[in-house]
Design a protein that fits this description.
The protein has 11 helices and 10 strands. The protein is an alpha/beta fold and 317 residues long. It folds into 2 domains: 196 residues, 3-Layer(aba) Sandwich (Rossmann fold), CATH 3.40.50.620; 78 residues, no CATH class. 39% of the residues are buried.
């Protein structure tokens, strides 16, 4: 019998398994804290992208541990499509206030008024157009680094990206011209007009995030847990029926117990069938999931024209 099995046999609470899990989370947390402090030390005008979603909340918890309440040294930045779930934006405002952090919100609707964003049709998703508003915010505040909550396990294009990801003066990403990252040494040299996107939780997985949420007893927007919602089956996804995503001719909706694995623009974010009402139950569901987080929930990732890699090259998060 190996040591772990022997220990488990002696203790029905299975403390060794829990200890190993927490040790893994401790390592991820320490890496994230190191990277958040590195950004504060290296860059002059960084900002932390904060949507109110679970990944940015995990990152914000690490920032709270890195610097303390009221001492996070960079503002929180949200690019609002105007079609975000109110449960998420309300939670975003509440969390920023609790941490005494500066919150900057810039809207795609304002970009539309300026004429820098033009929709091809009124019901078009605004999600992809966040890139324009984001680049405008970077220019307005002269940000030289934006800290994002993207993870490599989310999507294959994000798996290609470095933790310190260089952006040229047009805000675009060149996947074939990335800088090497060896032994936690990062090349952060910038030319005028350039900036970095920094992803401190790159090495986390969806499972890690939910285990951390459980361990830290973190509060989240209610959408992340199972609730009854009117949905319609469309292209293999459960599409929420809302004023922005109404039924199409011939469709029939139904009530179902669902939760959101990711929260974003209402027009492109779908829930999954679930009865999980606690982080522990979601951990169990995540262990058995065979489709990636975005693949199972994002309508805008279903077509090659809206692929993540193309959007990232154009300046997306």
């Amino acid at each position: 019998m190996n040591t772990l099995a022997h220990s488990a046999a002696l203790d029905d609470t299975r403390q060794p398994t829990s200890t190993l899990s927490f040790s893994h989370l401790d390592g991820l947390e320490q890496e994230t804290i190191f990277l958040l402090r590195e950004v504060a030390a290296v860059f002059e005008r960084p900002a932390l992208l904060f949507s109110g979603g679970k990944d940015s909340l995990v990152m914000l918890r690490c920032a709270e541990k890195a610097f303390g309440i009221g001492r996070i040294p960079y503002p929180l930045l949200m690019i609002d499509t105007g079609h975000n779930f109110v449960e998420v934006t309300d939670f975003r405002d509440q969390r920023a206030q609790e941490l005494q952090a500066q919150l900057i919100v810039r809207s795609v609707e304002d970009s539309m008024k300026r004429g820098s964003v033009r929709l091809s049709r009124p019901d078009e998703s605004r999600n992809v157009h966040q890139s324009v508003t984001l680049l405008e915010a970077i220019e307005e505040f002269k940000f030289d680094a934006l800290i994002g909550g993207a993870r490599r396990d989310e999507e294959k294009a994000r798996a290609k990206e470095r933790i310190f990801s260089h952006r040229d003066s047009f805000g675009t990403w060149q996947p074939k011209s990335q800088r090497p990252e060896l032994w936690t040494l990062f090349n952060t040299r910038l030319q005028p007009g350039e900036h970095f996107r920094v992803f401190p939780i790159s090495n986390w997985t969806e499972l890690d995030v939910w285990q951390y949420i459980e361990r830290e007893n973190m509060a989240l927007p209610s959408l992340y847990y199972a609730h009854q919602r009117e949905v319609v089956n469309r292209r293999g996804l459960l599409v929420p029926v809302t004023a922005l995503t109404p039924l199409k001719p011939g469709e029939t909706s139904h009530q179902e117990s669902v939760r959101f694995r990711t929260v974003g623009d209402i027009t492109c974010t779908c829930p999954v069938a679930s009865h999980a009402t606690t982080p522990q139950q979601i951990v169990i569901e995540t262990l058995s999931a065979d489709v990636s987080e975005r693949g199972a929930t994002r309508m805008d990732d279903q077509t090659s024209e809206a692929s993540m890699e193309k959007r990232k090259k154009d300046g997306y998060f």
